């Protein structure tokens, strides 16, 4: 039985913490809640693309664990970034070989920032891989991704929770933020200062969109993980899954979005 509801899910950026999105998606789908449209920024765009391609959250986790993402990057001889992302396209090509938004099983929109025009651009048709790369292109660390005549960087710079592509299309919107930030009593070095400042800026534009979400999922435990802590991939997955299962238990109305809502409400 298919739900007639159109359910959108917006996935934030957040570096390696974005792996927690996989746990969130697993908990939602196990509960019968299946998004009919996905939007994402940065890590959320990557997770969203793999999920919309048809890979299960567990499959995607296995791919992440076995793949050394950084071996696909090479130094950039440039004043605009330390690394080039072009070769990362080869990695995405292994799992998204059609390179076409239209061939995804679930419609996807990814957000990226036009660094010259200072505006957000949303990609949902045409080539798939370069917009994903652009959406996760951290400014200063990577050379911008050129799409057409536009120089694109990480979508989180201006929109780290892209709910706008879901508005007016979906009956319900679920926002998922993996960047919960606790109070800090000791900022001991420049790395922590910069990382915290970037996350604060991104969270500001996330929380400004929270009111547009019917449900907002934000696992606070993620705050203890670094945004590049890839060795904790399995833990991050579990944090997203466990928190979302508890969230569903404490917010039972979300089960009205399930494929078979009558059955789900009896659980």
Automatic annotation (TrEMBL):
UniProt short sequence motif GXGXXG, positions renumbered to this chain: 13-18
Motif (DGA/G): 154-156
Catalytic center residues: 42, 154
Motif GXSXG, residue numbers: 40-44
Keyword terms, alphabetized: Hydrolase, Lipid degradation, Lipid metabolism
GO BP annotations, alphabetical order: lipid catabolic process
One term of GO molecular function: hydrolase activity
Record-annotated PNPLA domain positions: 9-167
PROSITE patterns on file: PNPLA
Keyword ATP-binding tagged: no
Source superkingdom: Bacteria
Name of the protein: NTE family protein
Taxonomic source organism: Algoriphagus ratkowskyi
């Amino acid at each position: 039985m298919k739900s007639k509801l159109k359910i959108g899910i917006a996935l934030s950026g957040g570096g390696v913490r974005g792996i927690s999105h996989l746990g969130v998606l697993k908990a939602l789908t196990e509960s019968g809640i299946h998004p009919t449209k996905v939007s994402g920024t940065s890590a959320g765009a990557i997770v969203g693309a793999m999920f919309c391609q048809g890979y299960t959250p567990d499959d995607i986790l296995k791919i992440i664990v076995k793949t050394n993402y950084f071996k696909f990057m090479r130094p950039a001889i440039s004043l605009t970034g330390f690394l080039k992302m072009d070769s990362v396209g080869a990695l995405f090509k292994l799992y998204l070989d059609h390179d076409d938004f239209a061939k995804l099983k679930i419609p996807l929109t990814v957000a990226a920032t036009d660094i010259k025009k200072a505006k957000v651009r949303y990609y949902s048709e045409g080539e798939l891989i370069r917009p994903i790369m652009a959406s996760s292109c951290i400014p200063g660390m990577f050379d911008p991704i050129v799409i057409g005549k536009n120089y694109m960087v990480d979508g989180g710079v201006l929109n780290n929770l892209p709910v706008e592509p879901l508005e007016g299309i979906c009956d319900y919107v679920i926002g998922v933020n993996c960047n919960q930030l606790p109070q800090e009593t000791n900022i001991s070095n420049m790395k922590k200062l910069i990382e915290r400042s970037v996350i604060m800026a991104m969270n500001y534009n996330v929380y400004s969109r929270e009111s547009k979400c019917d449900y907002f999922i934000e696992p606070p435990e993620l705050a203890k993980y670094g945004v590049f802590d890839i060795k904790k991939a399995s833990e991050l997955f579990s944090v997203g899954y466990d928190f979302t299962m508890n969230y569903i238990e404490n917010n039972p109305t979300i089960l009205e979005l399930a494929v078979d809502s009558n059955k789900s409400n009896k659980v």
